[in-house]
Amino acid sequence: QVSSTMPMEEGTLNLLGEEAKDFVAKYRDLCKPTSIYVCNGSAKENKRLCALMASKGMLRRVTHPNFKDCWSARTDPCDVARLESRTFICTPQQEQVVPEGAARPDGTNMLARWMSDAEMDGKMVERLNGCMAGRTMYVIPFSMGPLGSPLAKIGIQLSDSPYVVASMRIMTRMGLGALEQLSASSSSGDFVRCVHSVGRPDAADPVQIEKAKMRLPTWPCDPDRVLVAHFPHRKEVISYGSGYGGNSLLAKKCFALRIASWLGQEEGWLAEHMLILRIKNPEGRVKYFVGAFPSACGKTNLAMMQPALPGWEVKCVGDDIAWLKFDQEGRLRAINPENGFFGVAPGTSSKTNPHAMEMVHRNTIFTNVAFTENGDVYWEGMDSKLDFTSTKVISWRGIPYWQPGMSNLDGEKITAAHPNSRFCTPVAECPVVDPLFDDPQGVPIDAIIFGGRRPDTVPLVYQAFDWAHGVFLGSAMRSETTKAAADVTDKMRHDPFAMRPFFGYNFSKYLNHWLGMNGGQRHMPGIFHVNWFRRGEQNEFLWPGFGENIRVLEWIFRRTDGDESVARSSPIGVVPSNDGLNLEGLEQDVNMSKLLDVPLELWMQEEEAVRSFLEGQLGTDMPQAIAEQLDNLKQRLQQANN
């Protein structure tokens, strides 16, 4: 039990149920903080914590007059992205995470990194012992999803980072409302337990102590010993050594995808790396689509699209994560479990995403962006009209008088902002947020869209023949890699369902879970695949993208209505007919024959690559339906080639 004499910096533990108190007590005794702070999520609390971080040099205020209540953080250069190689799913049995016959000797494969829960517990106890000495332990209650929603889940995160508190206030429904919801539930112990510490170097290791002296003093971390561990069978996440968003905001990828995907499989729903958007046609008819895209494939831009076609409207429900469940009428419904945006800054501009550029001027925390001398923020691709000869730009590393084209002594390019620099902004600031964003029942889904960054092979858009074929399309996704993870070196990698780093359980069972969704009297959404990034012979993009993508969404809209006049069959799926896409008013000349081409030779290579990947990752556990889809694709390609 939590001692009544435990030093409390703020708040009270009386609002916590007994199991929550036991959870706090367990890690208070292990981590040994100086005091405990129970967060209430108020604006007053946030203002006080931001001022505290500013006084310590962890945050700086964005002082340009166009910004209101915005801050910027600069991390240590060793702590800038997710670390997939240090992220594990920890369970009693390996086959709960890795399909039979698909594991390497160390218990991992491309889609899963498994470690026994007992072994990981030992590693974490070693790291967490005394890790919060001299610091405050913040108790952060939060809800993923609208408070009171039947799809929502409650979590409590413990952290020694005020940056995490301020960011969690943006990204979740954080505060006393979540505790009240937990108290009102039938089981006050039904919450996801999240533990985070930025860590401290091993005092017994002189090498670690020397390394620590060279790190940014305002950003504590222990990068050589980072571990992010998920224990889905006991609804717990423990993260040590990193203060960066993806490793420290445990409600996000850790809870909302890895833990939630496990819970979804147990409870009959899906937790997916998907945007949710609302689309309204000129006649006023509304549909909702979800879309799964790997990082840096335009997911946020699509969710907040400014349509180029007159009369069409797009509203945003979410840009990153969707929880989906069939209702009693057989309609698939989705909620955005998050309450904010954690977007990649570089490349975001008034051209690519004008709505995002508007919203980041209020109540935003930037991380690892550059600054101008007049207090403005800056990053690559912003389309700023800065005169770099007369305007001083300070890079994210603190380099004064940064100039485009700068390089270090090794000839490596020096960027103004880190390629994975971020903005963290409340959903409430989005000018195109959907009115049903907070609907506890979720929104009804008419289409599921998969996509990736493919310079060749994959056409602009195509539709699956049926549900099983659509699940196969998700399993076969491949995309060029990005900077969102620090330890990824593949140029083109398989990323099934855009979930490669986020699966919380056995991939074979995941596929069977998806396949099993099609049953009874359910109204199954259509499944589509898009590719905005196909290139021509001069390496130019063949499609203008951004707001012009509404033309593809219009085709999907019509296909979900059953319009056969705009489609034709191909060996890989249903593609637009020659005049199936509305190109009226499109200023750029586009070669639709190339955009919609299905090059048979390249697709035969694609089939072989996907088959090899799936056989390697599924071992002897490949679902029969997926094996049949592979064979069917091969047969259709061979027939078309004869």
Care to describe what's here?
With 642 residues, the chain is an alpha/beta fold. The protein contains 16 helices and 33 strands. The strands form seven sheets. Strands 1, 2, 5, 6, 7, 8, 9, 10, 11, 12 and 13 form an eleven-stranded mixed β-sheet that branches. Strands 17-15-16-27-31-28 form a six-stranded mixed β-sheet, sandwiched between helices. Strands 3-4-21-25-20 form a five-stranded mixed β-sheet. Helix 2 packs antiparallel against helix 4, helix 11 crosses helix 16 and helix 15 runs antiparallel to helix 16. It is globular and about 75 Å long. The protein starts with 7 loop residues before the first strand and ends with a helix.
Question: Topology, please?
Answer:
Elements: E1 8-10, H1 18-31, E2 35-38, H2 43-55, E3 59-61, E4 71-73, E5 87-91, E6 108-109, E7 112-116, H3 117-128, E8 136-144, E9 153-159, H4 162-171, E10 173-174, H5 176-184, E11 192-197, H6 206-213, E12 227-231, E13 236-240, H7 245-248, H8 251-267, E14 270-272, E15 274-280, E16 286-292, H9 299-303, E17 313-318, E18 322-326, E19 332-335, E20 340-344, H10 354-359, E21 365-367, E22 370-372, E23 377-378, E24 393-394, E25 422-426, E26 443-444, E27 447-451, E28 461-463, H11 467-475, E29 478-480, E30 492-494, H12 507-515, E31 526-530, H13 550-560, E32 567-570, E33 573-576, H14 592-595, H15 600-618, H16 624-641
Parallel strand pairs: 1-2, 2-8, 4-21, 5-7, 5-12, 9-11, 11-13, 16-27, 27-31
Antiparallel strand pairs: 3-4, 6-7, 8-9, 8-10, 12-13, 14-18, 15-16, 15-17, 18-19, 19-26, 20-25, 21-25, 22-23, 22-24, 28-31, 29-30, 32-33
Helix pairs in contact: 2-4, 11-16, 15-16
